[in-house]
Specification:
With 170 residues, the chain is α+β, with helices and mostly antiparallel strands. Helix content is 44%, strand content 18%. The chain has five helices and four strands. Strands 1-2-4-3 form a four-stranded antiparallel β-sheet, sandwiched between helices. The structure holds flavin mononucleotide. The site of flavin mononucleotide (FMN) has 7 residues, from strand 3.
Length: 170
């Protein structure tokens, strides 16, 4: 296959795949580095490189799951609280091998939408690199991340745009 055919195939194959379909195997550090490297190659106006990714694995990931669950509990009224949703928040983070927080840094040098667009392109690069490596992934834009305190520190000129879940397939 030539380059154009390979690229077309990866773009066509890319899907959002959820943690229930991830295997329990570990993504190699080499591939994880490759995924992050692909993100850093995204186009960005004035080279502001507005993406800030924090990787959660192992114990840190387990703590993130607990914090997300307690945020859900605290921000829902008793009538709207669903035990299933509460359990699902923990299940998804624990089932993924790696979770990334997607944060945009607003430099003030270009309009905010341009920084968000650049971060989104970085996420697309990660989606495609995951696809090429048979890794399931998806972007969750849950608003719960706005309340993260222990797992994530963000500056005044930054915003968390959600979480990126990853796990090997098959
Ligand atoms: C900015 C953004 C936010 C998203 N947030 C969520 C989300 O919160 N929950 C979810 O299930 N999927 C989320 N997705 C994934 C979309 O639902 C998914 O891309 C769409 O259903 C199309 O499926 P595909 O990615 O397999 O083509 C998000 C995608 C993008 C680009």
């Amino acid at each position: 296959m030539n380059k154009a055919e390979v690229l077309k195939q990866i773009i066509e194959q890319r899907r959002s795949i959820f943690p229930k379909d991830y295997s329990d195997t570990v993504i190699s550090q080499e591939i994880l580095d490759e995924i992050l490297h692909s993100a850093s190659l995204a186009p960005n106006h004035k080279r502001t490189k507005p993406w800030r990714f924090k990787i959660f694995r192992g114990e840190q990931k387990a703590k993130l799951a607990l914090e997300m669950q307690s945020i859900y509990k605290e921000t829902q009224s008793e009538q709207l609280f669903l035990e299933k949703k509460y359990n699902d928040i923990g299940f998804k983070i624990n089932k993924a091998d790696a979770v990334l927080s997607i944060v945009v840094n607003f430099s003030g040098m270009v309009p905010e939408w341009e920084e968000i667009a650049a971060v989104s392109m970085a996420v697309q690069n990660m989606y495609l690199t995951c696809t090429a490596n048979n890794i399931g992934c998806y972007w969750s834009s849950t608003k719960l991340v706005d309340h993260l305190k222990e797992s994530l520190t963000i500056q005044e000129n930054q915003q968390c745009l959600g979480l990126f879940y990853m796990g090997n397939l098959e």
